[in-house]
Amino acid sequence: MTNSLRPHGYQRAPLPPAREAEPPPPTPHRDTAGHQTGPPTAPAKPEPKQRDAFFDNAKYLAIVLVAMGHAWEPLTDGSRTAEALYMTVYAFHMPAFILISGYFSRSFDMRPHRLRRLITGIAVPYLIFEIAYTFFKRWADDDPTYDFSLLDPWYLTWFLIALFVWRMTTPIWKIIRWPIPVSLAIATLASVSPDIGDDLDLQRVLQFLPFFVIGLHMKAEHFQRIRTPRTRLVALPVFAGAVAFAYWAGPRMNSAWFYRRDSVQELAAPPWTGPVMTLAMFGCSMVLVACFFAWVPRRRMWFTALGAGTLYGYLLHGFLAKGSRFWGWYDDYAWLHKPLGEIAVTLVAATVVTLLCTPPVQRLFRFAIEPKMEWAFRKDPGEQARSRTSAA
């Protein structure tokens, strides 16, 4: 069966609509003598930008798969079917999430308001949840000596530190030639570099990097090409084939390959497998990501609004996911390892993460996940000037 290593865990603004040309200011009506006969008509207020339902749907479905994967993890040692589903989902759910994160990072630069957003939306939640998870582990796992470390992300917080690093390097990926091959080369070198260590989870940062870079260079029409009836038809046998292959490979393959947190040496594999597995898994992940996007609805659904709260579901469901292990739920209730129990676990995981993405939960935890922190930053002179101009 698979190796006992399991993932430590695991990211926003929607794609703005194409900006239309602003209409010219209205010309006041004048009589034949050239005198103005009435005040100029005030320009109509621009309509608020609409979120793209496709990306909100994709984020919601991806976070549901994340929660299901965490719920299936304790079942994989006793169920080959659960293991096959687990490996299939782990092959593409985080690559899909990271690709979307890269797509929405295309406009990132070093301007002050974007850096403030990077700090409040990623760095501060990382600090808060790294502390929260540390105290949770000390209490729930009865491990009062567990060390706190900002440099060693625990469980789900690795994704926040990875997203911080990826976004900070965005300007580089936007100016160099051949960014995707370069990122793949870096991921390959990382897979055979055991000395990288655990600081900032750099193995994951570097091995998942190509998906972020691809997202940076994708355009709206690329997603349109994926979402075709023909692609959806092809996606079904592809997913079926992936599950069948995972069912065969489960007892023969170390599933830690999918976590991308270890080098080949740490996985007790020969060095030549690093480049081979990196490229093979990259290809498989991209195919499954495309199949996943092909089936994401493009219209508004009952869960579309929840796509704006996926980071809440992601960070908060980890307490229940880890608590279920610390408190021995899977050991105490043997029926959970039966087919009906596995179905129940799946439904509970999907329901819990859905509830954690809802607006009431967002309002309750916004102070930790999306703090404004205006008190912590200087006023941007450029923004002040724009405010004065708009007020005039």
UniProtKB/TrEMBL annotation:
Keyword Acyltransferase annotated: yes
Key words, A-Z: Acyltransferase, Membrane, Transferase, Transmembrane, Transmembrane helix
The organism's place on the tree of life at top rank: Bacteria
Transmembrane segments: 84-105, 117-136, 148-166, 232-250, 276-295, 302-320, 340-358
GO molecular function: acyltransferase activity
Residue ranges constituting the Acyltransferase domain according to the UniProt record: 53-357
UniProt keyword annotation of Transcription present: no
InterPro entries hit by this protein: Acyl_transf_3_dom (IPR002656), Nod_factor_acetyltransferase (IPR052734)
Region (Disordered): 1-49
Protein name, UniProt field: Acyltransferase family protein
Organism: Streptomyces cuspidosporus
Lineage: Bacteria, Bacillati, Actinomycetota, Actinomycetes, Kitasatosporales
